[in-house]
Amino acid sequence: MLNTSRAAALPSPTVPAPAGHAEGVTADEFRAAMSRLAAGVVLVTAQEPPLDPDDPSAPGGEDVGMTATAFLSVSLDPPLVLVSLREGARMDDLLAEQPLWAVSVLTESQRHIAGRFAMKGRISDRLLFEDIPYVRGEVSGAPLVGGALATLECRTEQRVAAGDHTLVIGRVLAARVPSAEGGPLMYFRGRYRQLG
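Structure (tokenized):
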């Protein structure tokens, strides 16, 4: 008779990972597979801290924005969300020192905003915000895009290093649904899309 308790205690043999990429999948294969997952599009915003926090008359820092598709709800109680930021990106560096930030859930008619804040080698964020209607969040001080489907103001609770990205988990301090017009802006197979 087989002693099942002893058999269960034996370690299982490990299978070595294939040579090359750590898990046997190339970056192109992984990117292609994940592009089949539709995602909502948000604009993550934050305001740089004042240049001299001890001087109330010192100029405030610049507003910074970044388009993100890796954004999700984590918990209802407490209300937590997560955004994934490329390690070393301007927003990653800013949120390492600025705990308050905001998210605007973009509508299908706000594709131009998503594209503008996703550009590589772009101009200063001050100019990117110049002709976009927004209000400043009461809690975060960050820009909240006018006409967004929803807005959230957050405070960073945790930062987790994950490969070449940082996962920023934020507690939601304020949530509003300012617009019921239009559908969400989606990202699928490398392009912005509309539902339906």
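The first strand starts at residue 39 and ends at 40. The chain has five helices and twelve strands.
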